[in-house]
Amino acid sequence: MLQELIISNFVLIDEISLVFSPNLTVFTGETGAGKSIMLDALELLCGGKAEKNAFRDPLKPLKVQGLFRISKNSGLWAELEELGVSIEDEDENLILKRELSPQGKNRCFINSDMVRVQDLKKISGWLVNIHSQHETHSLLDPKSHPEFFYALGGQELNSLLVAYREKFEEFRSLWQKKQKMDARRREILREKDRLSLEVEEISSLNLVRGEEEELALRHKALVNAQEIGIKISNILSFMDGSSEGSLMYQLALMTRDIRSLAVLDPRSSELVDVLGQIELQFEELSSRLQDYEDVSRSGSDYDLDSVESRMAQIENIKRKYGADIEAVLELEKENAETIFSLMREEKELDSLDHLLPVKSRELYQDALALKALKEKARVRVENEVSQCLARLNMPEARLDIRFVNREGSLEFVLDQKTVALGPDGLESVEFYLKSNSGQQPSPLAKIASGGEISRVMLAFKKVFASVKTSQTLIFDEIDTGIGGDTAHRLAEIVQEISSLRQAVVITHLAQMALPANRHYRVDKIVEKSGTISKVVLLTASERKTELKRMLGLTSEDIPDETLNRMLQKFGKPILENERT
Predict the structure, then answer these.
(1) What is the Cα–Cα distance from 550 to 352, expressed in whole angstroms?
(2) Nearest 5°: phi and psi at 9?
(3) Of all helices (H) and strands (E), which one includes residue 524?
(4) Domains of the chain by range and CATH?
(5) Which residues does 138 contact at the CB level (< 8 Å), separation at least 6?
(6) Model pLDDT, residue 578
């Protein structure tokens, strides 16, 4: 419940403090006096956007503060705890405050805790429900009908709807993921096939690191095999030939002479050892040359062809996959790892294929339960709204709530049947109205009369007040297009609403002001410093004058006794010198 609203430096308001009745508070005044400025200030406090021209004095800050009395049992407490707002258990008062500087700095508070603008918006949703001309026009938009309906549907429906929408968003995320993954599955198959072919091609060659260098050496030897053979033959012949000029023959002579020398002079015996080492190395050299000759002789044209073929294979694979064998083998490794990753991704897809049918069945069951509650709420809301319209001089009017399909539904097959589910379940909501007997119900958008749509909106608010009692209802000219007896009936219903919850009304009609528990008049005053709006809490006599002005009458036109009888109809007799 809104107890007090303090506004400073806002549009035409210098500074005011407004205290509200727990039942019905009414604001009246001439057109253009600034009645709706209070509504604008309240919307700003509730997280609304501030206009650049909102500052009365462009050099001073703009401030709006609201004092609310809250219920401990409402879900608001949980929201406050989530935001970390400090509030004592025994304290049922809540202060919302917003300050804007001319430089654009924005400061928001809940009690003494600084919060964000979106936090104000979130919390104020529990405190205030503002009806404006914009909301009335939104009633003509079918897209807004579901939220109107759910607001009227009651706690059970709304609790199930919240739970359903959470599951729906989870399901939609899975569903969209599956759509992407179905396309991704095809990409995976193509990618796996491509990578597998590359791995198979590389693997079939059995590449070995350093193989290129070895092949190059072997190729050079094979190309020069004939010349190499001649040179080896010459060397061996020179070393091991039987002629007196061969190295072996000469070495034998040297051995004989050195051994003889050692006999003649023992000091030369160490030369025998040196010669022995030379003989061993010579024999090692001869043996290796023999082996090398054997290897060289084993080479053939076929061997050269095979080496060149292998070198061609390696060059070909390098052109396709890397600068050298090292790069090709690294690519083979990377491809194998990617294939493994793709196989793991395929498993996730398979898991999703199994999960989605389970989730779709669960969501479908919740949608059926939601549908049952919507059917139940539809009957009640249709009856209550229609009864209220009858009281508002629309005796033949009948609200027709229809369940329709909406864009954004997800289609899937369940038990061989195509099912479409959206954020509202199996169907969404659209309002139709039959205004007169014999007419077919038409969409609300086709209602031409502003008075009719105003009455429909008030009927909705009446039902809303009966199912939700925590918010303060603010009505900005709910009486548009209405007058006469219908205005009296409208005022009666507003009074009934204010008995269920706090209501604030901005109006041009005296009938709407009659049941007020607290009556403010808004005046526009031109001063030297500029034009300002002043808000005056009316005394009994001031209220009497204001009501007559609103009726377009003077004291001579309507006696006080007649005005008193009009007020008594709402249980509000005027008492002299009493503040209302």
Answers:
(1) 68
(2) 60, 45
(3) strand 518-527
(4) 1-140+469-537 (3.40.50.300)
(5) 144
(6) 44
Q: Report the alpha-carbon angle 432-438-443, nearest 5.
A: 15
Structure tokens at 369: 């339960």
Rounded Cα distance between 356 and 209, Å, is 49
Query: What angle, 0 to 180 degrees and rounded to 10, lies between the N-to-C axes of helices 540-551 and 560-568?
Result: 90
Torsion angle of alpha carbons 123, 127, 130, 135, nearest 10°? 60
Query: 491 — phi, psi (to 5°)?
Result: -65, -40
Q: What is the pLDDT confidence band of residue 375, given thresholds at 50, 70 and 90?
A: very high
Distance of CA 427 to the CA centre of its chain: 23
What is the model's pLDDT at position 45?
92
Residue 458 half-sphere exposure toward CB, CA atoms < 13 A: 37
Using the 8-state DSSP alphabet, how is residue 439 labeled? P
Helix, strand, or coil here: 237? helix
With CA atoms as reference, report the closest residue to 381 among 452, 441, 431. Answer: 431
Amino acid, single-letter form, for residue 82: E
Q: Classify residue 477 as exposed, middle or buried by CB count within 10 Å of its CB (0-12, 13-18, 19+).
A: buried
| Residue 445: DSSP 8-state | G
> What is the structure's pLDDT at 63?
95
Euclidean distance between the first and the last CA atom of the chain, given in angstroms as a whole number? 19
Q: What is the DSSP-derived secondary structure letter of residue 93?
A: E
Which alpha helices (DSSP H) does 265-324 contain, by range? 269-298, 301-321
Nearest to 507 by CA among 482, 544, 540: 482
Count, residues in the chain: 580
Q: Would you say 211 and 327 are in contact if contact means Cβ atoms under 8 Å apart?
A: no
C-alpha distances (whole Å) from 467 to each of 18, 121, 373 are 28, 22, 15
Radius of gyration of the CA atoms of the chain, in A: 49
Q: What is the model's pLDDT at position 575?
A: 45
Other CB atoms within 10 A of residue 527 CB: 9
> Cα separation of 163 and 154, whole Å?
15
Number of Cβ atoms within 10 Å of the Cβ of 24: 27
Q: CB neighbours of 555 closer than 8 A, spacing ≥ 6?
A: 548
Q: What is the pLDDT at residue 96?
A: 93
Task: Report the C-alpha gap between 4 and 95 in whole angstroms.
Answer: 10
Q: How far apart are CA 484 and CA 388, in angstroms?
A: 17
**Residue 266 DSSP class:** G
Give the HSE-up count for residue 492: Cα atoms under 13 Å, Cβ half-sphere: 13
Q: How many Cβ atoms are within 10 Å of 168's Cβ, its own excluded? A: 21
CB 390 within 8 A of CB 107: no
Half-sphere exposure of 390 (CA within 13 A, CB side): 11
Contact 548, 554 (CB under 8 A): yes
pTM comes to 0.66
